[in-house]
Write a structure and sequence with these properties.
By secondary structure, this protein is α+β, with helices and mostly antiparallel strands. The protein is 38% helix and 27% strand. Strand 3 and strand 4 form a beta hairpin.
Amino acid sequence: MLRRPILTVTTFVATMADMRTRAGRWTHDTAAVPDGMVVFLIGMSITKLWRPDRWWPTFVAMLPMLIKQRRRPELGVLGTRVLIGGSGPVLVQYWRDAESLYRYASAADAEHRSAWARFNRAARAAPDAVGVWHETFPVAATESIYVDMPVEGLAAAVGSVPVSGRTNRARDRLSSG
Protein backbone atom coordinates (compact mmCIF):
# COMPACT_ATOMS: atom_id res chain seq x y z
CA MET A 1 0.00 0.00 0.00
CA LEU A 2 1.46 3.34 -1.04
CA ARG A 3 1.07 5.98 1.63
CA ARG A 4 1.22 9.70 1.01
CA PRO A 5 3.71 11.52 3.20
CA ILE A 6 2.18 13.73 5.85
CA LEU A 7 4.64 16.56 5.28
CA THR A 8 5.33 17.37 1.66
CA VAL A 9 7.22 20.29 0.18
CA THR A 10 3.87 21.89 -0.66
CA THR A 11 2.45 21.57 2.86
CA PHE A 12 5.74 22.72 4.37
CA VAL A 13 5.79 25.85 2.19
CA ALA A 14 2.11 26.54 2.95
CA THR A 15 2.76 26.11 6.67
CA MET A 16 5.75 28.45 6.58
CA ALA A 17 3.73 31.02 4.61
CA ASP A 18 1.07 30.89 7.33
CA MET A 19 3.77 31.69 9.90
CA ARG A 20 4.56 35.09 8.40
CA THR A 21 4.25 37.91 10.87
CA ARG A 22 1.16 40.02 10.46
CA ALA A 23 2.07 43.57 11.40
CA GLY A 24 -0.08 45.74 13.61
CA ARG A 25 -2.83 45.06 16.11
CA TRP A 26 -5.66 42.77 15.14
CA THR A 27 -8.33 40.61 16.71
CA HIS A 28 -10.49 37.67 15.67
CA ASP A 29 -13.60 38.33 13.62
CA THR A 30 -16.35 38.26 16.25
CA ALA A 31 -19.03 38.10 13.55
CA ALA A 32 -17.59 34.78 12.39
CA VAL A 33 -17.77 33.09 15.82
CA PRO A 34 -20.70 30.69 15.61
CA ASP A 35 -23.35 30.66 18.31
CA GLY A 36 -22.70 27.63 20.49
CA MET A 37 -18.97 27.40 19.76
CA VAL A 38 -16.99 25.31 22.23
CA VAL A 39 -13.31 25.25 23.09
CA PHE A 40 -12.08 21.71 23.61
CA LEU A 41 -8.80 20.98 25.36
CA ILE A 42 -7.36 17.49 25.16
CA GLY A 43 -4.01 16.28 26.30
CA MET A 44 -1.94 13.41 27.47
CA SER A 45 0.21 13.10 30.54
CA ILE A 46 3.37 11.05 30.14
CA THR A 47 4.10 9.75 33.62
CA LYS A 48 6.77 7.22 32.68
CA LEU A 49 8.96 8.77 30.02
CA TRP A 50 11.09 5.63 29.93
CA ARG A 51 8.06 3.60 28.72
CA PRO A 52 7.56 4.82 25.13
CA ASP A 53 6.07 1.41 24.38
CA ARG A 54 3.11 2.61 26.47
CA TRP A 55 2.79 6.32 25.65
CA TRP A 56 3.97 6.50 22.01
CA PRO A 57 0.84 4.75 20.59
CA THR A 58 -1.35 7.29 22.43
CA PHE A 59 0.79 10.15 21.13
CA VAL A 60 0.62 9.09 17.45
CA ALA A 61 -3.07 8.11 17.57
CA MET A 62 -4.07 11.77 17.39
CA LEU A 63 -2.39 12.48 14.05
CA PRO A 64 -4.88 10.61 11.80
CA MET A 65 -7.76 12.29 13.63
CA LEU A 66 -6.27 15.76 13.13
CA ILE A 67 -5.64 15.10 9.44
CA LYS A 68 -9.23 13.96 8.91
CA GLN A 69 -10.62 16.91 10.86
CA ARG A 70 -8.60 19.34 8.74
CA ARG A 71 -9.69 17.72 5.48
CA ARG A 72 -13.37 17.54 6.47
CA PRO A 73 -14.59 20.91 7.78
CA GLU A 74 -18.16 19.60 7.89
CA LEU A 75 -17.13 17.66 11.02
CA GLY A 76 -17.20 20.97 12.87
CA VAL A 77 -13.58 21.68 13.83
CA LEU A 78 -12.84 25.35 13.14
CA GLY A 79 -9.19 25.24 14.17
CA THR A 80 -6.59 23.40 16.23
CA ARG A 81 -3.45 24.47 18.09
CA VAL A 82 -0.85 22.10 19.51
CA LEU A 83 0.88 23.14 22.71
CA ILE A 84 3.47 21.44 24.88
CA GLY A 85 2.39 21.24 28.48
CA GLY A 86 4.40 20.30 31.55
CA SER A 87 3.50 16.62 31.29
CA GLY A 88 2.86 16.25 27.57
CA PRO A 89 1.12 17.65 24.50
CA VAL A 90 -2.12 19.62 24.68
CA LEU A 91 -4.48 20.35 21.80
CA VAL A 92 -6.72 23.39 21.83
CA GLN A 93 -9.60 22.93 19.42
CA TYR A 94 -12.36 25.32 18.42
CA TRP A 95 -15.54 23.39 17.51
CA ARG A 96 -18.60 24.87 15.81
CA ASP A 97 -20.80 23.49 18.60
CA ALA A 98 -20.90 20.79 21.26
CA GLU A 99 -23.11 18.53 19.16
CA SER A 100 -20.46 18.39 16.41
CA LEU A 101 -17.84 17.45 19.00
CA TYR A 102 -20.06 14.76 20.56
CA ARG A 103 -21.07 13.41 17.15
CA TYR A 104 -17.41 13.05 16.15
CA ALA A 105 -16.38 11.48 19.46
CA SER A 106 -19.14 8.87 19.39
CA ALA A 107 -19.23 8.00 15.67
CA ALA A 108 -18.73 4.27 15.34
CA ASP A 109 -16.72 4.65 12.13
CA ALA A 110 -14.46 7.49 13.33
CA GLU A 111 -10.83 7.07 14.35
CA HIS A 112 -11.64 8.34 17.83
CA ARG A 113 -13.63 5.27 18.88
CA SER A 114 -10.93 2.79 17.89
CA ALA A 115 -8.15 4.97 19.35
CA TRP A 116 -10.06 5.26 22.63
CA ALA A 117 -10.55 1.50 22.78
CA ARG A 118 -6.81 0.91 22.16
CA PHE A 119 -5.90 3.44 24.85
CA ASN A 120 -8.18 1.77 27.40
CA ARG A 121 -6.64 -1.65 26.67
CA ALA A 122 -3.11 -0.21 27.00
CA ALA A 123 -4.02 1.68 30.17
CA ARG A 124 -5.18 -1.53 31.81
CA ALA A 125 -1.86 -3.18 30.90
CA ALA A 126 0.24 -0.33 32.38
CA PRO A 127 -2.14 1.87 34.38
CA ASP A 128 0.34 4.52 35.42
CA ALA A 129 2.46 5.05 32.28
CA VAL A 130 0.26 7.51 30.38
CA GLY A 131 -2.95 9.39 31.04
CA VAL A 132 -5.35 11.37 28.89
CA TRP A 133 -7.68 14.20 29.79
CA HIS A 134 -10.07 16.64 28.18
CA GLU A 135 -12.06 19.74 29.10
CA THR A 136 -14.91 21.34 27.13
CA PHE A 137 -15.89 25.00 27.47
CA PRO A 138 -19.02 26.50 25.89
CA VAL A 139 -18.15 30.00 24.69
CA ALA A 140 -20.53 32.78 25.68
CA ALA A 141 -18.29 35.67 24.58
CA THR A 142 -14.81 36.05 23.12
CA GLU A 143 -12.00 38.57 23.21
CA SER A 144 -8.53 38.48 21.71
CA ILE A 145 -5.67 40.65 20.56
CA TYR A 146 -2.64 39.78 18.49
CA VAL A 147 0.25 42.17 17.90
CA ASP A 148 2.95 41.70 15.25
CA MET A 149 2.73 37.93 15.04
CA PRO A 150 1.49 35.12 12.79
CA VAL A 151 -2.22 34.31 12.81
CA GLU A 152 -2.86 32.04 15.79
CA GLY A 153 -5.62 30.61 17.93
CA LEU A 154 -9.17 31.84 17.53
CA ALA A 155 -8.16 34.25 14.76
CA ALA A 156 -6.80 31.33 12.73
CA ALA A 157 -10.04 29.41 13.38
CA VAL A 158 -12.59 32.08 12.44
CA GLY A 159 -10.66 34.86 10.67
CA SER A 160 -9.17 38.14 11.78
CA VAL A 161 -9.85 41.86 11.51
CA PRO A 162 -7.76 44.92 12.38
CA VAL A 163 -8.26 46.51 15.78
CA SER A 164 -10.26 49.68 15.24
CA GLY A 165 -11.55 52.49 17.43
CA ARG A 166 -14.52 50.45 18.64
CA THR A 167 -12.33 47.41 19.38
CA ASN A 168 -9.29 49.21 20.80
CA ARG A 169 -9.80 48.03 24.40
CA ALA A 170 -10.29 44.49 25.68
CA ARG A 171 -13.55 45.49 27.39
CA ASP A 172 -14.89 46.83 24.07
CA ARG A 173 -13.82 43.76 22.12
CA LEU A 174 -15.51 41.46 24.62
CA SER A 175 -18.77 43.39 24.58
CA SER A 176 -18.80 43.75 20.77
CA GLY A 177 -19.10 40.01 20.17
